[in-house]
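Problem 12. The chain below contains 373 residues. Write out its predicted structure in token notation.
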Amino acid sequence: MFNKIRVYCTKFVIVVASSLVLFGCGQEQPKSENGVAEPQKTYKWKMVTSWPKNFPGIGRGPETFAKNVERMSGGRLTIKVYGAGELVPGTEVFDAVAQGTAQIGHSASYYWKGKSSAAQIFTAIPFGMNVQETNGWLHYGGGLELWREIYKPFGLIPFTGGNTGVQFAGWFKKEINSIADVQGLKMRIPGLGGEVFKKVGGIPVALSGAEIFTSLQSGAIDGTEWVGPYNDLAFGLHKAAEFYYYSGWHEPGSALEFIVNEKAYESLPEDLQAIVEIATQAANQDIMDEYTARNMDAMQTLKTKHKVDMRALPSDAIQALKQASLEVMQEHAAADPTFKKVYDSYLSFQLKAMDYHKVSELEYYKNRSDVSN
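Solution.
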């Protein structure tokens, strides 16, 4: 009896041990002709970004992503990160990855409106969805599938790559007391927000992040939006403009992107593909977490240490911008069937999110507003 139990136990241990070996390795090691395990193939990628090297938030996020991929893959996939201008200009990330100059990039889709007008929607829509709603649409509302459909002809696969949250309205060298003060004002503002700004009488100017401070300081532009307190403080924008306006409207939940060369991705074994995908998801959350924490501290620094004059945009400006935003979106949808397809999906999700958040998030914020008193 005991001998039989001993035999069964021995067999059980052997089976469990074998299973652990298989699970621990992830997959069977390839063997040479003499049966000796061969080292697994390694891959070396280049990543180009639209941001200064190691810039807070958006610049450090890609570095963290690359480290996570190397750790999870046991060094089988390594990624060297290049900041804007180190390998290619920040405005050429899309083409560099599509052409294979780099295997992966980190940027924002609204820079590629020349490739597809609808690409802008995946970053942000003025008066559109916040980060929570945007992520819901992308991952569970069909947004990511539409995004990949648009990038497919270019041989690219987009993944979510972080979010900055609600961006501030921007820095201005003069007061904005009404919508009339926007007339003829030169402002650095990209994407659909720039088109809306133009419709209400402003002059949108396209500038890279590296050009903003000197352009604002010299008077080449009268105002600029960048991101929010965390990144704006890092750029020292408070030294170049006196007035800092909130009431963000143009980018309420600015989604970033990882774009991967399709051929490079398909050349990876399945486990490394999964590692890339999961690492993008981790980066998507981590970058937003960082902005949530750091923006709060940076805002206090701007207010208390640098005595920045922070103001809300006047209500008539908000109403004018909101009406202009609706007109811009309708014009794009009427002119481009692809834009309309993506916008219809986005708007449908947003309306449902607004209805739900009216009785969930908004009610909670109202109830919480006096918690410190």
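Discussion. Residues 1-27 have pLDDT under 50 and may be disordered. Students who got a different answer should revisit the alignment rule from Section 12.3.
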